[in-house]
Amino acid sequence: MSDTPVKQQSTAAFYGQAVASFAVAMAATAIGIVRLDASAWVRGFMAIAVLYLVTSAFTLAKVIRDRQEAGQLVSRVDQARLEKLLAEHDPFEKL
What we know:
Layout: H1 12-34, H2 40-88
C-alpha cells in the first residue's frame, strides 16, 4: 500500500489573493449599499440579501469540497485494494 500524502492544491499566494478579492468585493458592495439613493429599509434589505448570498456561497463551496474529498477517499481505498490484489497475485502459479 502506498503512503502518498495528500498534496495541498493551492499556494499561499492563491489563498491571499482569494481573501483579498473577497474583502474588496465585500467592501465595494457595502459602500454601494450605504451610498444607495434609497430608504433605510431598502438598504437594510439589500445588506441582508448580500449576507445571505455570501453564507450560501460558502456553504455551497464546502459541500462541493466535501464531495470531492469523499471521492478521493473512495479512490484511495480502491487503489489500496488493487495494490493488495496485485501484491498477492503470482502470475506463474498454476491454475
